[in-house]
Amino acid sequence: xxxxxxxxxxxxxxxxxxxxxxxxxxxxxxxxxxxxxxxxxxxxxxxxxxxxxxxxxxxxxxxxxxxxxxxxxxxxxxxxxxxxxxxxxxxxxxxxxxxxxxxxxxxxxxxxxxxxxxxxxxxxxxxxxxxxxxxxxxxxxxxxxxxxxxxxxxxxxxxxxxxxxxxxxxxxxxxxxxxxxxxxxxxxxxxxxxxxx
Length: 197
Known about the structure:
The protein is α+β, with helices and mostly antiparallel strands. It has six helices and four strands, in the order ααβααβββαα. The chain has a four-stranded mixed β-sheet with strand order 2-1-3-4.
């Protein structure tokens, strides 16, 4: 019996050692798996954080770009409004000039745009009412150098400027039309004067 008990004790001792080895190995493997899992989790967290930072930076950059675009458009619209307002005021200021100065401006424009032939100068009733005496004769005297003449004819139209008629051809010299024909040049001048100085 003592031999059997010795064998059993030996088996029990061997199995206890084996169990301890198995448990120790399992714990080592579990520790290694845990360490690797922590490393993987840290790496994945770093990747996720890096992606999030990259995406956030892209979103901020897009938002800044969009904001700049909106600001540029708003500034451009405001500049256009200011330029249009200045051009409109210019026509109004010309119309509001004292009669002598106003009709001197009209004379210069007529000389510039008149042809060397007989024609009609159409003006508004408002301008006809403020026409200085002898204006037509004085104007025609100046036009003889070009070989032309004009008969002034009031017609229903906006005040400010005139329309020259030579047969079927009409040349619109109202202030609005003249300003419009010089729109780009005036816009550039006003832009330089208001925004680049």
